User: What shape does this take?
Amino acid sequence: MVEAKRVEREKKYLWQERTQVMSELAHLREAIQVQINAAPEEADAEITNRETNIILIGILERRLHHLDTALQAIERGTYGVCMRCGQPIEAERLAVRPEAILRLACQKAVEAGK
Ligand SMILES: [Zn+2]
Assistant: This one.
């Protein structure tokens, strides 16, 4: 089990991250709206920017989802427990990625589509 003090600290970190991701998302979504309304002569460069921003939004939305899942786990008292197998997540892994919801082995298995 992850100790309570540590969970408090991770919770704070996760909320900070979440706030930052939310503001980046708002910024990118706004940029996309501006790009849609761009003049035709600027359109080519703007389309490239727009595609980049859409990819970034996708990455940030996934990150937001991970942060939310980790925060939910904290609320449920299951933080630091792998959602796939119920084993504790490696401490070193949590230290690097506090939003991790899977053990390394399970993460790899999921990514491999098993
Ligand atoms: Zn697992």
Notes: The chain has a mean pLDDT of 89. Residues 21 and 63 are 8 Å apart (CA to CA). The radius of gyration is 18 Å.
